[in-house]
Amino acid sequence: QVQLVESGGGLVQPGGSLRLSCVASGNNFRFYAMGWYRQAPGKQRELVADITSGGDTNYVHSVKGRFTISRDNARNTVMVYLQMSSLKPEDTAVYYCNAKSPVGTGNYWGQGTQVTVSS
User: Fold this and answer.
1) What is the three-class DSSP state of 31?
2) Angstrom distance (rounded) from CA 86 to CA 89
3) Which helix (H) or strand (E) holds 48?
4) Helices vs strands, H then E, count in the chain
5) Phi and psi (nearest 5°) for 66?
6) Rounded to an integer, what distance in angstroms lies between the CA atom of residue 35 and that of residue 75?
7) What is the Cα–Cα distance from 58 to 93, expressed in whole angstroms?
8) Alpha helices of the chain — where are they, by DSSP H?
9) Residue 7: CB partners within 8 Å, gap ≥ 6?
C-alpha cells in the first residue's frame, strides 16, 4: 500500500523555522523524484522544491536561500525533509509531499500539513 505521510507543520512566528517530514512507503520511491508543494487559500498548488533520486534540487525563487529539501533513501521507505527558515506570512499554506516516477508511471500525494506563519 502506497503511503505518503507528512508531519511537522504548525504555527510559527515570522522569522521562525519549521522542519517538515514526509515518509513515503509502499513503492520503490528511492527511484522517484520527491517534492514539496503548497497551496494557499484561493491559490493554485505550486511547487516549492523538489529533489531527484540522485540528489539534484530545485526551488521556487521565493524560497531560495531560506528552504532546504533533502532525502534519505532506504530500501522500501524514503524520508523527505523540508527545512524552512526565515519564514514569512506568505509562506502560510498547506504543504504536500509528492512522489513522481521518473518514467511517468506514478504520481503520489500526501494528505498535507498546515503551516501558518503569523504573529
Assistant:
1) helix
2) 10
3) strand 46-51
4) 0, 11
5) -115, -35
6) 19
7) 19
8) none
9) 20, 21, 22, 113
pLDDT at position 104, please?
80
Mean pLDDT, contiguous 10-residue spans, the chain (119 residues): 96 98 93 96 96 96 98 88 98 98 90 97
Q: To which residue does cell 512522489 refer?
A: 99
The grid cell for 51 is 529533489
Look up residue 4 and give its three cell numbers: 505518503
The three grid cell numbers given for residue 81, joined into one nine-digit string = 525533509
Q: Which residue reads 522500501 in cell numbers?
A: 76
Residue 32 in 3-state DSSP?
coil
Helix (H, G, I), strand (E, B) or coil at 58: strand
Distance (Å, whole) CA 29 – CA 53? 8
| b/e 26-54 (16+ beta carbons within 10 angstroms → b) | ebebbebbbbbbbeeeeeeeeebbbbbbe
The letter for the amino acid at 100 is K
